[in-house]
Amino acid sequence: MNVTQRRPISAGQRHDHVSRRAFGFCKATKSGPDQGDCLEVAPLSGGRVGLRDTEAPGQAPFVVSASVWDAFVDGAKKGEFDF
């Protein structure tokens, strides 16, 4: 998934009561259309990434730095999180 194509969030925007439109959240195309059981991501200012659960879109996103996100994506691609 290429989240860099989405509009980044400016540093001054609030992170509570987030909406899909304001933050440009996206989810994997393999996720179903029912909006449940999915994790969404959105690029934020400074290379940070916001993460949220589709079952709780009104809650503030969990925000990680660019280096943490890159390490996670790299690990996922290598199968480090396969159960």
Explain how this protein is built:
By secondary structure, this protein is α+β, with helices and mostly antiparallel strands. The protein has 2 helices and 3 strands; from the N terminus they run H-E-E-E-H. The chain has helices spanning 20-23, 66-77, and strands spanning 39-43, 49-53, 62-64. Strands 1-2-3 form a 3-stranded antiparallel beta sheet. Strand 1 (39-43) and strand 2 form a beta hairpin. The longest helix is centred in the last third of the chain and has 12 residues, at 66-77. The model is unreliable at 1-21 (pLDDT under 50).
Overall pLDDT, averaged?
75
**Molecular shape:** globular
- What is the spatial order of strands in the main beta sheet? 1-2-3
Radius of gyration from the alpha-carbon trace, in angstroms: 13 Å
Helical segment tally? Answer: 2
* Helix percentage range: 10-25%
Task: Identify the notable features of this structure and list them briefly.
three-stranded antiparallel sheet, disordered N terminus, about 80 residues, alpha+beta
Quick structural overview:
By secondary structure, the protein is an alpha+beta fold. It has helices at 20-23, 66-77, and strands at residues 39-43, 49-53, 62-64. Strand 1 and strand 2 (49-53) form a beta hairpin.
List strands and helices in order, with pairings:
Elements: H1 20-23, E1 39-43, E2 49-53, E3 62-64, H2 66-77
Antiparallel strand pairs: 1-2, 2-3
